[in-house]
Specification:
The chain has about 130 residues and is an alpha+beta fold. About 25% of the residues lie in helices and about 30% in strands. The chain is built from two helices and seven strands, in the order βαβββαβββ. Strands 1, 2, 3, 4, 5, 6 and 7 form a seven-stranded mixed sheet that branches. Strand 3 and strand 4 form a beta hairpin. The longest helix is centred in the middle third of the chain and has 23 residues. The protein is globular and about 40 Å long.
Length: about 130
């Protein structure tokens, strides 16, 4: 199941439909939620993907890969876990992705800067997995 930022936030009652509010992260960059992709019904490992737009990770931007990793860990803890709890979804893995520009899921864009990190969910906590 896919849900857009506006749909998710409206469902949660956080903001009106169509609004995209920045999500706070440790680096201070402006990160905006794009969508969630729920892959928990496939029968194998239950994965939920959270996609965010983060223009400051672009080449020449002020957020490097290390800072982006800290932001992704924070997004797992402060955004993904509460969302999963609210929706009653049990996931084994959460994947957080940051992109400097909109990129359709599954489509390659050689110009885009993108970071992806996977986190195992154990005892209600996000545990970073080294790929």
């Amino acid at each position: 199941m896919r849900m857009s930022a506006a749909g998710l936030l409206a469902l949660a009652g956080a903001v009106p439909l169509g609004a995209a509010e920045p999500v706070g992260v440790p680096s201070g960059q402006s990160v905006v939620f794009v969508e969630v992709i729920d892959e928990t019904s496939g029968g194998e490992e239950a994965v939920v993907r959270f996609r965010f737009l983060a223009p400051a990770i672009a080449e020449g931007g002020n957020v490097d890969a290390e800072a982006a990793l800290g932001d992704m860990a924070a997004l797992c803890d402060s955004f993904a876990l509460p969302w999963l709890s609210h929706e009653g979804i049990v996931a084994q893995t959460v994947v957080i992705s940051l992109s400097d520009r909109p990129v359709e899921f599954g489509v390659t864009d050689a110009e885009a800067v993108q970071y992806f990190e996977a986190f195992q969910i154990e005892d209600g906590a996000c545990i970073w997995e080294l790929y």
